[in-house]
């Protein structure tokens, strides 16, 4: 019921600490990522390494971003299935190895230790209380893995091949405006804005979007209205680009026709080869 709220609360608390950097504040800042996260299917202490230190640094660019989407055909279900399975089965090794390649040896050690401890504890608990462990830890992990990966897949499902560089945060994601999801997810729909400045407070994102309107126009940033990320992802996977085309916000002048919008969306679903 509160999975979306918890994950997005965890998300922003890892970008910006909720409590001041005092002994008491540091302890309180550890409650969500270390104590609560495993009950929501997220290995304790690993989210920051994966999302903040890896995903935002590499900015969806494969192969360095382990959750990058650009090399996949993003309306292909089998490609998404591979993407999901890679996270579920390989991230335990790939994420620490990524940290090693970046010279973050302490982070690599802590990530590997925390992930390994999470797996070992669940294995031990399953031997003692299999049914309880299944529903308290294993099922939440499966549900959260699907939610996290389909969420990230959907957020980065449209990649502009004409403007796809590490310097451009406008080419590999989009914004969702005027959607109820923003009221439950700390304005997560402003995803271009979030990638431009990951430390922007969630309450400032609408005004920040207005400040960045001209840059959205200059770089042909994609904006939808009245839909959230999961709806966008489901529409793509069910081949309903016409439905999404009706929900794009026209920033360009002259505006695109319906056919031009569909063609643009199709182009941004293809694998990007560099």
UniProtKB/TrEMBL annotation:
Keywords associated with the record: Membrane, Transmembrane, Transmembrane helix
Pfam families with a match to the protein in the record: FA_desaturase
Keyword set includes Transmembrane helix: yes
Membrane-spanning parts: 80-99, 105-126, 133-153
Keyword Cell inner membrane: no
Biological processes annotated in GO: lipid metabolic process
Residue stretches making up the Fatty acid desaturase domain: 8-208
Protein's recorded name: Fatty acid desaturase domain-containing protein
Species of provenance: Cymbomonas tetramitiformis
